[in-house]
Amino acid sequence: MKKCHITFQLNGSLREILVDPNQTLVRMLREDLGLTGTKNGCGEGDCGSCTVLLDDEPINSCLVLAAQVDGHKVTTIEGLADGDKLHPLQTSFIENGAIQCGFCTPGMILSAKALLEQQPNPSELDIRTAISGNLCRCTGYQKIVESIKAAANNCQGES
Amino acid sequence: MIMQKFDYQAPADLKEACQIMANYGDKAKLLAGGTDLLIALKKNRISPSQVVALDQVDEIKGLWSDDDGIYLGARTTAAEIADSDFGAAGQALAEAAAQVGSPLVRNLATVGGNLVTAMPAADMAPPLLVMQAGVVLEKLGDNREIALDDFFVGPGEQVMLPEEIMSLIFLPELPSGSGSAFEKLGVRKALERSIVSVAALITLADDGKTIQEARIALGAVAPTPMLAATAGAGLCGKKATKKNFSAAAKTTAQEARPRGLRTSAVYSRLMVEQLTMRALTRAYAAASR
Asked: Positive or negative, the Cα torsion across A64, A69, A73, A78?
C-alpha cells in the first residue's frame, strides 16, 4: 500500500502531507492533523457530523478518501473564526442556545455557512433543507434554525 | 481509517483510466462520488487491490448538448444535475437529482454511480428511462453505447465488464410538447431510500390534447428500475384526461413487480398507482407549457 503525497489548502493555508490510501478525510483531519472539531459519527454519510467544506461545498468527509483532496480546498470548523473573533454563525449559535451536546454543531454551522453564501436571505424551508443531512440527536432543531435565521439577518444588517 | 488495504490511483484522463482498468480488471474499483464505494469498503463487501479515482477525468464531467441531444458526463454530481435546466421534457431528472440523499450527499454522489450501482431504488434511473437515455461504456481502444433499458440486470447487477468505465449518458432530443415529472415516496424527506418512485413523460400532439407518446418508469418496485411499457403505450393516441391517466396508473400498478421486501407488495402497488397519477398529471402540465 503506497502512501499518497498530497498538497491541499486547509483553512486558508497550504498543507503537504503523506497519507495512507485507505485513510478517510475525516480521520486525516482528526488523527493526522489534530483538528478534532470535525466529528466522526456514523461513517456512512447519514448523520452529517463529519461535514466539511470541499471547494466551498458541504460534504460528508467520512465518504471521501484523504488522497482525493489533493489540489483542493478544505474548510473545517476551525477555519471559521478570525483569531479570537468568532464567525457570526458561531456567535449566533451560542446566543440563541443552539448548542446542547455540541456533537452536530460543527456540521450544522458549515452547512449553514454554505447556504448563507449562496442565499444570504434564506427562507425557513431553505434552512431546513440545507441542514437536512445533519442530524441533531438532542433534537434541538428549532434553536438551530432560529440561529441560522438570526445570523442571516445580522449579516444582512452589516452589508 | 478503512481496515482494508489498497493502492490509490488518480488517472489524469479517460485513456489512462481505461489503461488501469485493462490492467487490473475486477481487482480495481472505480471511485466517483464515493457515497456507495466507501461504505462497501468499510463494510468489507468488496476488496479491490486498486481504487481508481475519477476526480481528475474532466472529460466525463458536466453537461453539453448538440442537435442530437444532451450529453451528461457520468462524473456529474446530483447537485449539479439538480441545478441544471433540462427544460420541461427533462424536468423529472432535475427533480429526482434534487431528492438524492441529502445536500451533503448530493455534492458528492454522481449520476454514473447512481446507475452503475444498479440499486432498484436509484432515484435518477426512472427519469433517465423515460427520457430514453443511452449510456456509453468505455474500455481501452473501444466503446459501446447501450440503451439504459438494457443496462440493468438485477439488484446491484448491470451489464458492464470489469474493465469498462461509464463515461457518458446520452439524452436524445425530445420532440417539442414533451414534459416530464418525478414522484418519490419515502418516510422522510432527506436521507431516504425510495419506497416507490415514478417518472412519467408525455409528448403532446399539436392539438395540445392528444398524447402522441407517453412513458412511465418505476423505481424500488422490481429487481431493477423498470419501464411500465404497457401502460405507457396504452396512452398513445388517447386524450390527456383524468380518466385515461387513472386507467394508465392502474395498469402501471399491475406491471410493477414488488418483492415485498421493505413494504408489502399490496402497499407498493397502491402507491405506484397514486404516484403514477401524480406524475402523469404534472408531466401533462409541463408538456402544456
From this structure: positive
